[in-house]
């Protein structure tokens, strides 16, 4: 129906051309009709030109419509086929144009809204393409990293050299970068994610300023440590000060002069001897405490090498349990797969596991049936080692404090095992703190989950 009028008009034009050609054919053999033939031939050319113009006019209208779609320069009213025979088609084109125009406006509005949201978030967002061009950079990147907006990622890498390898990453990576801003060092947790869309490669980089959180955690850690240090020192200094004062009172007169030998009886001497013995013991304890504190700051850098985890397990189990069979002990050692290996410092890992196994042994000492499990396995890209026991567990009030230096719930090693022999710190309260520092030096972490009197799980994650 849309083309009915157009077809009729084309047929009429072609019919008139055929009639004209028939007349020309009939008159061309008559010499006295030469002028008439020439006029008819000229009219035929005019008819051909008019037919071509008519058809091309429609083609131009269609071409203009399609060009407008391609160039996105359309609106709801600037697309129209001039010929009235295309009134229905005109209306269809207008409907299509309006739909696309409205869709484009909505898309632009959504894009603007998304940009406003991205600019408001605190996380810095940077998107680059395969040509090192900057596609997107939100306000947080400009403000937090003190950058100017540039279309080239080369400018970003010049200001932040730690990002120079970002365009070459093959999978998402996470790292902490340090940026100097106005002579102050700031640390950012950065995720670098490669993206591929419609045969085009992009790199998405996000930044989170963690300096404030790190500073806050550092202050809290110092406060906890200072409280513990103050408590331990006061526990030793207070009785030393009190006993020293008492001893002085035993050998001094009221006028602060020393008493003579004949003025001090045996009972007083025994009291002084007992006081001095206590002072010596507390002084020795304070010396050991300071020694333990020094150990926290003197952990050697790991000397990493590849070894089988089964060998590590065999070593620590022999040391802690000394191949002694206990009727009520169920010790389970699992390595999955059996040839699972670890790239770490063997001696430092040995020390960590000794600490954890001694804790497990101590926690289960009052149990009728002891369950201790030592296991290692892979979880995605991580290697996990776990020490599990069914001991008394750790209460919710203490679980957040167990990694604080010198926080302890026990006094001595179980079964008389010496700290020197075990390579640990006994009940000094630095075993778990040392273990955490060793794990951090290996780029890993240590965590704990505990359900009192049921199960406690310490997890080493590499």
Can you identify the CATH superfamily of the largest domain?
Histidine kinase-like ATPase, C-terminal domain
Shape: elongated
Instruction: Just give the CATH class of the largest domain.
Output: Alpha Beta
Proportion in β-strands: 15-25%
Query: Percent helix among the residues?
Result: 40-55%
- The overall number of domains is 4
Based on secondary structure, the structural category is alpha+beta
- The value of Rg in angstroms is 44 Å
Look up the CATH topology of the largest domain. Answer: Heat Shock Protein 90
> Whole-number average pLDDT?
78
CATH architectural designation of the largest domain: 2-Layer Sandwich
Oligomer: single chain
Counting H and I runs of at least 4 residues, what is the number of helices?
11
What do these coordinates show?
- With 462 residues, this protein is α+β, with helices and mostly antiparallel strands.
- The chain folds into 4 domains: 4-103, no CATH class; 122-209, Beta-Lactamase, CATH 3.30.450; 214-296; 305-461, Histidine kinase-like ATPase, C-terminal domain (Heat Shock Protein 90), CATH 3.30.565.
- It is built from 11 helices and 12 strands.
- The longest helix is centred in the middle third of the chain and has 41 residues, at 211-251.
- The chain is elongated, with a radius of gyration of 44 Å.
